[in-house]
C-alpha cells in the first residue's frame, strides 16, 4: 500500500511538472517528422508554425484532430512567412490535450503527407 501511494504521488508530481514546464516555455510543443520528400519541424502553441527542412514546399495544409475526444478541425492552409516557414493564421485548438496534426505538403519534390502528435496546453 505504501509503495502505491508513493507511485501515485510521483505520477502526480510528473504531470504537474510537465504542465509547469510547458507553461514556462510559452505553452509550446515541438515535434519533427521526416518523409521521403520533406522533413518538417512543427511548433504548436497558441498557433502552429511549420518549418520545412528538406526541399521546398509550395504549400502546406494542416488538418488537426483529437482522436481521444472525437474532435476534428477543418483543413487550414498555412501562410508562408519566410523561406521554408509556414504559419497558421489563427489559434486552432479549442481545448488542451493530445492533438494529431496531419500536414499535406506539395512542391517540386512531390506531394507528401506527414503526421505528428503534440500535447497542446491552452
In short:
The chain is an alpha+beta fold and 122 residues long. It is 19% helix and 48% strand. Strand 2 (39-44) and strand 3 form a beta hairpin.
Structure report:
By secondary structure, the protein is an alpha+beta fold. The chain has a single domain (28-120), classed as Immunoglobulin-like (Sandwich). The protein contains one helix and ten strands. It has one helix at 2-24, and strands at residues 29-34, 39-44, 48-52, 57-66, 71-72, 76-77, 79-82, 85-87, 97-107, 112-120. The chain has a five-stranded antiparallel sheet with strand order 1-2-3-8-7, with no helix packed on it. Strands 4, 5, 6, 9 and 10 form a five-stranded antiparallel sheet that branches. A hairpin with a 2-residue loop joins strand 7 (79-82) and strand 8 (85-87). The longest helix has 23 residues, at 2-24. The protein starts with a helix and ends with a strand. Residues 7-25 have low confidence and may be disordered.
Primary descriptors:
122 residues, Immunoglobulin-like, single chain, 5-stranded antiparallel sheet, alpha+beta, 48% strand
Structural class: alpha+beta
Q: Can you tell me the CATH topology?
A: Immunoglobulin-like
Strand fraction? over 45%
Low-confidence stretches: 7-25
What is the C-alpha radius of gyration, as a whole number of Å? 17 Å
Q: Secondary-structure element order, as H and E?
A: HEEEEEEEEEE
Largest sheet: 5 strands, antiparallel
> Ends: how far apart?
36 Å
Helix content: 10-25%
CATH superfamily: Immunoglobulins
Query: How many structural units, i.e. domains?
Result: 1
Total number of strands: 10
Instruction: State the helix count.
Output: 1
Question: What would CATH call the architecture?
Answer: Sandwich
**What shape does the CA trace take?**
globular
Amino acid at each position: 500500500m505504501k509503495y502505491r501511494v508513493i507511485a501515485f504521488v510521483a505520477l502526480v508530481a510528473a504531470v504537474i511538472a510537465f504542465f509547469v514546464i510547458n507553461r514556462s516555455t510559452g505553452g509550446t510543443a515541438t515535434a519533427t517528422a521526416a518523409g521521403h520528400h520533406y522533413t518538417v519541424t512543427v511548433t504548436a502553441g497558441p498557433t502552429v508554425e511549420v518549418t520545412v527542412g528538406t526541399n521546398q514546399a509550395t504549400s502546406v495544409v494542416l488538418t488537426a484532430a483529437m482522436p481521444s475526444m472525437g474532435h476534428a478541425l477543418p483543413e487550414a492552409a498555412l501562410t508562408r512567412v519566410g523561406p521554408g516557414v509556414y504559419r497558421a493564421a489563427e489559434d486552432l485548438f479549442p481545448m488542451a490535450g493530445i492533438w494529431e496534426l496531419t500536414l499535406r505538403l506539395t512542391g517540386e519534390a512531390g506531394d507528401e503527407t506527414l503526421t505528428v502528435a503534440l500535447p497542446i496546453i491552452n
